[in-house]
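Lab notebook, bench 4. Continuing the backlog of folding jobs that were queued last week. Each job is logged with the same field layout so the records can be merged later without manual cleanup. Today's entry covers Methyltransferase, a 251-residue chain. Filled in by technician R.K.

JOB TYPE: sequence-to-structure
TARGET: Methyltransferase
LENGTH: 251
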Amino acid sequence: MLTHDAALEWIARWDRQQEGYLPDREERFTALIDAVEAMGRPDPLVIDLGCGPGSLSARLLERLPGATVISVDADPLLLGLGRAAYPHLRFVSLDLRTPGWTGALGLDRPADAAVSTTALHWISGPELSKMYAELATVLRPGGLLLNGDHLETDDTTPAIARLERAVHDRETARRFGDRRPEDWRRWWESVAADPAFAELHAARTTAGADHHGSESPLLSEHVGALLDAGFTEVGTLWQRGHNRLLCAVRA
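JOB STATUS: finished
OUTPUT FIELD FOLLOWS
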């Protein structure tokens, strides 16, 4: 059985392996939560899209304890890990690619913000457009989408795109040198080998929750889909290399 303390240890290990790909991860979290806080409500309603084990959701509630955070993911293992570690969070098992997903959120008012970090690039272009369009229906006017991710610009500014990746690579080398943290594959292999995760791992395999590459890596793809969905302003709030925080304002 997965205990609370063991879950916290596994999430700390998750955070370290994520930082191996995102040395500025905590800075991006901070910028994202700053933006939610700047909206001016002490009790914002926030949807965390592709929440994983709840790393962002937990940080949001630490800063804004009056917030209501609904943490959404389709991966049974990561949801189980988050529930064991953060019993005060509300986790919802939903696939954002399935039309009608917003109806299962149980919202009692329009959301003030939807947030996401390193998740939405797994959704393919056509499904991304539908997801953003449905999301717009549950955000209040002036509500925000805040999406932190590696978003590329090769299709519009290829020389700058190469420089963005170079900036990211140099920061990673400065931060870690030859002592890179555990990588994604090793983390998942270790989880699969832990008997405490046997049931959750089986559920994950049955659900087909494995990721197999980036489906929508281009910044232009996200910007275009958001504008088509009715968001009036879309721009970058924070950036380091190709690691950026994309913000979109609901009409």
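OBSERVATION: The chain has one domain: 4-250.
SIGNED: R.K.
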